[in-house]
Specification:
Layout lengths: L2 H17 L23 H5 L24 H5 L6 E3 L2 E2 L2 H12 L6 H14 L6 E4 L4 H7 L3 H13 L8 E3 L11 H8 L3 E3 L2 H4 L3 E9 L3 H12 L4 E9 L5
Bound molecules: zinc ion (2 copies).
Length: about 250
């Protein structure tokens, strides 16, 4: 390639960068988009049904058939939290983005995810006193370097002005992988692995539990249960994505 051609390509890239800076790319597929502040994902991604919209369970926010208010699972197994809100469905590109946040240090996703979670909380008029990130075990934190739920909680704190009650719930026992377990197996696997460090602090206060993904609700429910036992006034839950239960 001659020098002139190389220069022209450089100029073209420079101009494209001016029109489409890197921070206005779709958070899932990196397509250039124009209205990042209102919608940080492209039309193609939106059309692949990644948004957790439509008719949803009033408790666990899972998508359900029109005309129903509660999913079968919440109807048969009441939860210890008031309500959960999740902006996305855990599938395809959402799943890759969350895995990147979890394992590959893709922290740049945190402010956008937190903003969308806060929008959902606001839509539902959810109010709370303290934010609690789902804790991870020290060993997991050492391996990963950070707790993705804590990053999300800190960002939600910035947006809402509500404090993070860090270390109020701690995870002191490593649990087996939960992937193949159902709700009651998960709950059993988790019970006794989380602990509340200050029971008196909880009484009469309301909390927002923050996680990256909700699948069976076992993890968030275990923490909600601890808070309710200590007489918390209310417990709400938010996660980036709702993973629909396998039938
Ligand atoms: Zn996209
Ligand atoms: Zn439900």
């Amino acid at each position: 390639m001659n020098k002139f051609k190389k220069l022209m390509i450089k100029i073209k890239d420079f101009i494209l960068d001016l029109i489409f800076p890197n921070d206005i790319k779709c958070i899932f597929c990196e397509t250039d988009i124009l209205d990042f502040d209102n919608k940080p994902y492209c039309e193609k991604c939106e059309k692949s049904h990644i948004l957790n919209d439509g008719n949803r369970c009033i408790f666990c926010d899972v998508q359900i058939l029109e005309g129903n208010t509660v999913c079968d699972f919440c109807a048969s197994t009441p939860k210890d939290f008031e309500k959960a809100v999740c902006p996305f469905v855990y599938k395809s590109q959402v799943r890759s983005a969350i895995l990147n946040l979890k394992e590959n240090n893709a922290r740049w996703l945190v402010p956008t995810f937190a903003k969308l979670m806060c929008e959902r909380l606001k839509e539902e008029n959810i109010d709370f006193d303290y934010i609690i990130p789902i804790p991870i075990h020290e060993k997991t934190k050492k391996r990963r370097g950070y707790n993705q739920s804590k990053l999300l909680a800190d960002e939600i704190a910035k947006i809402t002005g509500k404090p993070v009650a860090d270390n109020l719930i701690i995870k002191f026992k490593l649990t087996k992988s939960q992937k193949e377990l159902n709700f009651s197996e998960r709950q059993k696997n988790l019970e006794g692995s989380f602990s509340l460090t200050d029971k008196n602090f909880v009484k009469g206060k309301s909390f927002l539990i923050v996680d990256d993904v909700i699948t069976t609700c076992a993890t968030v429910n275990t923490c909600a249960k601890l808070l309710k036992k200590a007489k918390a006034k209310s417990v709400f839950v938010t996660a980036v994505a709702r993973n629909p239960l396998k039938k």
